[in-house]
Specification:
By secondary structure, the chain is α/β, with parallel strands linked by helices. Helix content is 54%, strand content 7%. It contains 13 helices and five strands. The chain has a five-stranded parallel beta sheet. The longest helix is centred in the first third of the chain and has 32 residues, at 81-112.
């Protein structure tokens, strides 16, 4: 169906008239209904409709709206289900486009001040506007299919360590954020690198993002893990290390190590991944972030000293990224 692109007074008036004719349609639109998005001549009527339903839990009459807003709305009759399907679809796009338009206009002053966080938040909220279509899971219906979906679609992805896999009931699931905690010097970076090696050797494409150690140092540690040569002996026979790494690499998945300065955000990771996928022409199966404490949240103004609040925001945003990428995502704190 071709979407209306004007969204002027006349089409907005039709929205209100159709909503007045069917309570169910208005209720379904109520979650994204914003009277300020309407034409100024219709805002009073839209706000009255919204407030009245919120207070009385029933639609006002045509006469009540017209009298309160000093307008002339005419409630249509004889409409079919397909007409209301059009209303839901078109009103959803209207709300999204108008919200995006407003967000862009409001962002001009913020951009001049260099306040990019609020701009990003405004644009993100606008483009995410939509009617609720996902009604969730019917618990009683088809338990077998539901369980198989967890097993087959999300995971389980074995870590390569049987004892840990047993504790995790098989391994990690895709689309979930897994955080391992440990004190300074406890071996968080080594643990993450070992996981990356295990998964790359299993044929998965792994990406290791380091916010602390250099790419070369992380790679040298991985050399030791892959070749079974102790770190202290790596430089005794560099040619042997190179031969073993290249031979093993032919049978393994991709393993990319990337350094990023501390203070980067989940959006910076998202941008890097997009560039990586385009240039490398492959998807990331495993994302390892070393480590969470060295990151900052996307838009929230949080002091780096308030570690708990900062990490709370970052972990929530990383979890959203894990779901978006549908990959195995592991970090440490």
């Amino acid at each position: 169906m071709k979407q209306n692109v004007d969204y002027g007074y006349d089409i907005q008036k039709v929205y209100l008239e159709m909503m007045l004719s069917d309570a169910e349609s208005f209720v379904r639109c109520q979650g994204i209904f914003d009277s300020s998005l309407f034409d100024r001549k219709l805002q009073k009527a839209a706000q009255f409709l919204y407030d009245y339903v919120g207070e009385h839990n029933v639609l006002p009459t045509q006469e009540m709206v017209n009298a309160a807003a000093q307008i002339k709305l005419e409630v249509p009759t004889g409409l079919q289900e397909s007409h209301y399907d059009w209303l839901l679809s078109d009103f959803e796009t209207f709300s999204r486009h108008k919200s995006l338009e407003r967000a862009i206009l409001e962002s001009a002053d913020l951009l001049e001040k260099g306040e990019y966080g609020p701009v990003e938040s405004k644009i993100k909220n606008a483009v995410q506007i939509g009617l609720q279509k996902d009604l969730g899971t019917d618990y009683w219906k088809d338990p077998k299919q539901r369980l198989l979906a967890i097993k087959d679609n999300n995971g389980q992805v074995k870590t390569g360590w049987e004892s840990l896999d047993r504790k995790l009931f098989g391994g990690f699931n895709r689309g979930e954020l897994n955080i391992f905690a440990g004190g300074s010097g406890a071996g968080k970076s080594l643990f993450l690198a070992n996981l990356g090696v295990n998964w790359a050797m299993a044929g998965m494409n792994a990406l290791y993002l380091t916010f602390e150690l250099s790419e070369n140092l992380v790679s040298m540690r991985i050399d030791s893990m892959v070749t079974d040569i102790p770190s202290r002996d790596i430089f005794k026979d560099v040619d042997d290390v190179e031969m073993k790494v290249k031979m093993i690499g032919k049978k393994a998945g991709a393993f990319q190590v990337k350094y990023m300065p501390s203070g980067k955000t989940p959006n910076d990771i998202r941008a890097y991944l997009k560039e990586y996928e385009i240039k490398m022409n492959r998807k990331v199966d495993v994302l390892l972030v070393d480590y969470l404490d060295l990151m900052m949240p996307n838009g929230a103004r949080v002091s780096a000293e308030n570690l708990f609040i900062k990490d709370k925001f970052v972990s929530e945003e990383l979890r959203n990224l894990a779901m978006e990428l549908n990959c195995v995502f592991v970090t440490a704190s």
